[in-house]
Amino acid sequence: QRIFEVLDVPVAIRDAPSAVAADTIDGSVEFRNVTFGYRPGQPILHDVSFRAEPGQVVALVGPTGSGKTSIGALAHRFYDVWQGRVLVGGGDVRQLRLDTLGPAIAMVLQEPFIFTGTVFDNIRYSTRHATRDDVVRAAKAVRAHDFIMRLPDGYDSVLSQRGRNLSAGQRQLLSFARAIVADPKILILDEATASVDSFTERDIQAAMKELLKGRTSLVIAHRLATVRDADRILVLRQGRIVEEGTHAELMRGRGLY
Question: What is the pTM of this model?
């Protein structure tokens, strides 16, 4: 009954009749005076404006509930804004076809979802045309290859539901490999290192450097190691950008950051 209740939920986000393909987007992400909330009369974001240039790493930091995750959701057009515009590659996301916008953006979450099945299928699940060489190359890039080869059947090892036979760090490295195989122009990392210990984080930080190369990235994080090297850091509080700059500039400013 609950499954059918989910299936019966009406789809609110649809392609506009004039929507165009997002195949040629340059990777830029821009918010222009965006106001948005999940409940009428209760905005989460207030008049937010910023631009991430192609290939730039922009970190989003701030207290819990300040609107960081909502920015990632709006870039992917999981929701429509109340006011303002969200532009990807210079085009309003409401005028881009969803089936072409989706593959252009990859998200790595704090708790990645691992399906029952082989390591190989989990890494390429969103990119079915990927070859074994593509998968192995991606796993090596994010330092996942060695632990995969220690599994009983390597890339053909079957993972349990939600990957319970892997550690949190190993599941996260698989999700990084998954993103590299998808080869998106835009990458959104939402607290991707929050659930791992400091030793595992060292490996994940190295993997992230490979993952971020040549991609426009929005990095949502609380850990300093994750945001320190970003090209620009946006500091949010109560749905507004209150500071922005590099790590060094924000430290000199001695503000909320």
Answer: 0.85
